[in-house]
Amino acid sequence: MAGEQAILVEIDKLQRERRHRDERALFFVEGIRNLVRAVEHGHRIDTVVASDILLTSSVAQKLVRNLARQRVPIARVPPEDFRAISRAERASGVGAILHQPIVPLHSVKPRAGTCWVVLSRVRSPGNFGSLIRTSAAVGGAGFILVGGAVDPFDPAVVRASMGSIFGQTLVRTGSTQLRHWVRRHRLQVVGASPDADLAYDELAYRRPPLFVLGEERRGLDSEQRNLCDDLVRIPMLPGTDSLNLAIAGSLLMYESFRAPRRAVRTR
């Protein structure tokens, strides 16, 4: 039982402390959907934690047995211990400690997917999780995180992504490296800004565009603007508040997804 207790302590720290997540290069996910998606996309599993009494899904029970046969460590804990680490409204009885799937920029194929999203700062983790869901829905390739401010493995991000995070490529790089990569591959970089002359649905998008989104309150900084080939705005009625990051980014991603399909229909 000492081993199981140590794992529970580790899970608690992984959920509470970003520094610990980054030092260990691990993160924790809870729920049947997350475990299934992680396995489907081949993510490296460090440990599965399960409570047999809470885990009533036959699909999940079979999956845990299969992982055990593959020699994935399984920590079986009482229901009260699982509930103590659960952040869900209803504890599912299964979760997993996963390795963080961050990849270097030089290993990325830029033409994969319909678009990429470039982020330097995000104020609301939930907005980031919603962006991940949209990217998955439109066939977006993933997210390029510039610097170390954005944490894709924050529990709120993972929860809001609803399992979509496992099908997205996550890259962390610096601004100089990103600029060189963009030039080498001749990519179209599009920034969202309310002072742009062009509306987001008036631009001709080349696949795959890189959408640069600024921090929710401050918008694009000078470095981000200098990276962009084009700036676009989302038209709004006077006197209305700006859209949050998730909605603005989703509109851009859907436009890059929709425009080529619309062109095919009108030929």
Description of the molecule:
- By secondary structure, the chain is α/β, with parallel strands linked by helices.
- The chain folds into two domains: 2-100, 60s Ribosomal Protein L30, Chain: A, CATH 3.30.1330.30; 103-266, 3-Layer(aba) Sandwich (Alpha/beta knot), CATH 3.40.1280.10.
- Helices cover 41% and strands 19% of the residues.
- It is built from ten helices and twelve strands.
- The strands form two sheets. It has an eight-stranded parallel β-sheet with strand order 5-8-7-6-11-9-12-10, with helices on both faces.
- Helix 6 (125-138) packs parallel to helix 7 (155-161) and helix 6 (125-138) runs parallel beside helix 10 (245-266).
- The longest helix has 22 residues, at 245-266.
- The protein is elongated and about 60 Å long.
- It starts with a helix and ends with a helix.
- Residues 263-267 have low confidence and may be disordered.
Quick overview of this protein structure:
The protein folds into two domains: 2-100, 2-Layer Sandwich (60s Ribosomal Protein L30, Chain: A), CATH 3.30.1330.30; 103-266, Alpha/beta knot (3-Layer(aba) Sandwich). Helices cover 41% and strands 19% of the residues.
